[in-house]
Specification:
Layout: H1 2-17, H2 31-47, H3 53-72, H4 79-90, H5 99-113, H6 118-133, E1 144-146, E2 152-154, H7 163-168, H8 174-188
Antiparallel strand pairs: 1-2
Helix pairs in contact: 1-5, 2-3, 2-4, 4-5, 4-6, 5-6
Length: about 200
């Protein structure tokens, strides 16, 4: 099922990001500045514990709508613009629309193909988010969750994915991912007071 959704999404993305001769140059386009401002605004709000979840959700919806508009107008073709658009789609709440993760995956892949190094990890992470949100095994193992006791664990993943496959997308090896979980679990445990 996700293959059909993926094929349709990929063809739409490729049609939208194809650079056309009538496109504005990067310096003449407001897209780069707008995307950068949206990413900065999101980072500030997400890092501020005073921001309510409703305000954050409303702004994320606004960001997604702007990215959709840029895609519809074929304004996303620069690697950094594709990366920032993918980043904004990647911040979608899982319950809202998991297809945004798939779109973020394809935009990230396009950015990586055009030389944006950070887009490789974002693309892998977005694919994992999409697969996990769809009830499927993730490919790379980037998505964690917490059990009823508050302990972190890696969501089910494809065991045939090798560390070489992960490295190609800048994802740490499985041992490193397990160590991250181990550290998170140690940090989240209440510290007993020694007398």
């Amino acid at each position: 099922m996700w293959i059909v959704a993926g094929a349709v999404t990929l063809s739409l993305v490729l049609a939208c990001v194809e650079r056309k001769p009538e496109m504005l140059s990067k310096k003449d386009s407001p897209v780069t500045a707008d995307l950068l401002a949206m990413v900065k605004e999101h980072d500030l709000m997400a890092g501020d514990n005073r921001t309510s979840s409703e305000v954050l959700a409303a702004n994320c919806l606004r960001y997604r709508q702007q990215v959709y508009q840029y895609l519809a107008q074929s304004l996303l073709f620069e690697p950094s613009d594709l990366y920032r658009a993918a980043l904004l789609l990647h911040t979608t709440d899982t319950a809202t629309c998991r297809e945004n993760f798939l779109l973020a995956y394809y935009l990230g892949m396009e950015a990586a193909k055009k030389g944006h190094a950070e887009a490789r990890y974002l693309s892998a992470c977005s694919l994992d988010k999409y697969l996990s949100a769809s009830g499927l095994r993730q490919k790379y193992g980037t998505q964690f969750s917490r059990d009823r006791f508050g302990r972190y664990y890696i969501l089910p993943f494809d065991t045939t994915t090798s560390d070489a496959d992960r490295a190609a997308w800048d994802v740490p090896g499985l041992d490193s991912l397990l160590k991250v979980i181990e550290v998170r679990n140690r940090q989240s445990q209440p510290q007993s007071k020694v007398k």
